[in-house]
Design goal:
CATH architecture of the domain at 3-144: 2-Layer Sandwich
Shape: globular
Number of helices: 4
Largest sheet: 5 strands, mixed
Structural class: alpha/beta
Number of strands: 9
CATH class of the domain at 3-144: Alpha Beta
Strand content: 25-35%
Helix content: 10-25%
Order of helices and strands: HEEHEEEEHEEEH
Strand order of the largest sheet: 1-2-5-4-3
Radius of gyration: 22 Å
CATH topology of the domain at 3-144: Beta Polymerase, domain 2
């Protein structure tokens, strides 16, 4: 970890000393893992602390770690992830809160960053994460009658039903999926021309 991130990590640890957090440097960004029950308290401190000033919520997204082949130490299948930035101090942080698989629920941060409204609705729609206290937690990308959450890894890629407009009934109807689920196997090997001359030069 660079000196810059070490300094930022120390500031975050100091400001959040009242909470049990785990921090790491991953993908050129400081990441902290917090308990889901403390998410609003942690986020308020990250925003209001004079040394941190994470005043911009860049994104809120869900993650499904089902069958994840990497680190096996994840305490839960689902997580709600927050990407924050300080506009004035020009630094970023990633906040991860793991959720219960049977009931993935966490407090909403709309009261801290108003922009979280649609982000949380998207995570609710696609992953089924419930944001407690959200002012209008409805689906935002799928149809209101949609069943399931399409970004969960057990959800079929082709979906469960398809919809079309029926002219006789003069309404939209749902039917079983008619698409055949295929596994596409490439039959040709792509060649990257950028490296052909280099390979020939090495052979010579």
């Amino acid at each position: 970890m660079s000196a810059y991130y070490q300094e930022l990590s120390a500031k975050v640890q100091k400001s959040l000393s009242a909470f049990e957090i785990k921090s790491e440097h991953a993908l050129s960004e400081l990441t902290i893992i917090v308990d889901k029950d403390n998410i609003t308290d942690v986020c308020e401190i990250l925003k209001l602390d004079s040394e941190l000033q994470f005043d911009l919520l860049v994104d809120v997204c869900g993650v499904d770690y089902l069958n994840y082949e990497g680190d096996k130490s994840f305490p839960a299948r689902f997580a709600s992830v927050y990407h924050l930035q300080s506009v004035s101090l020009n630094h970023r942080i990633r906040v991860i809160a793991f959720l219960d698989e049977e009931m993935p629920i966490i407090d909403s941060v709309v009261g801290i960053w108003r922009v979280a409204d649609w982000f949380e609705r998207e995570a609710f729609d696609l992953f089924g994460i419930i944001y407690n206290g959200h002012p209008d937690l409805r689906r935002i990308l799928t149809d209101y009658g949609f069943i399931g959450h399409p970004m969960r890894k057990e959800f079929p890629v082709i979906g469960n039903v398809e919809m079309r407009y029926d002219h006789e009934k003069q309404r939209v109807v749902y039917e079983p999926v008619s698409i055949e689920n295929r596994v596409i196997i490439p039959r040709t090997k792509a060649t990257d021309n950028r490296y052909i001359n280099k390979e020939k030069a090495n052979e010579e």
